[in-house]
Amino acid sequence: MSIANDRLESLVRRLRAGDRTAAAELADAYYQQIYVFMRRLGHSKPVSEDLTQECFLAAWQHLGQLRDDTALAGWLYRIAGNASKMYWRRHKGNQISIEQISLADGSEAGDKAEQAEQFSRVQSALLKMPMKWRRVIVLHYMQNLTITEAAEATGVRQGVFKSRLNVAIKSLRKRLAEPADGEL
Asked: Is pLDDT at 98 greater than 70 in this prediction?
């Protein structure tokens, strides 16, 4: 769920004034998106929940750093991406197995075997990619952010983001073209 620009500016004004109900509205509006982003970056469910909470706490504490009130979503994704990066630095080698990751829409695999298999291959390939490439794919293609929003979320110019996205897609295609584990 995203917020219309006029409501967004009002929400940011209220947040800047220290309105805790505005903080709850912010969490209600963006919690699921940030949580799914964390899951897609390869975090377990409990870690994703913790990191999502950390993201909203950091947003509340550093609201003064938000320069453009209409760029709130991108700013939240930047905070979330940084929280994820810091987690991986602290927990090197603790990435979860592919079986622990939910499907892209947040549902479990269930009886959609083919979709689950395709998702598993994509997620496995993503987990093997460097974080800066994984993040651009997740933000643009899985979180459905525009190039502008995703560039803001990663803290780079649009041209740099497009370049990273191009390299990341080529790398992902190459990895997906390779036989899956166990295939000959």
From this structure: no
Q: pTM (2 decimals)?
A: 0.68
User: What pLDDT does 55 receive?
Assistant: 94
* CA neighbor of 127 nearest in space, from 164, 79, 94, 86: 94
CATH code of 132's domain: 1.10.10.10
* Same-domain check for residues 26 and 86: yes
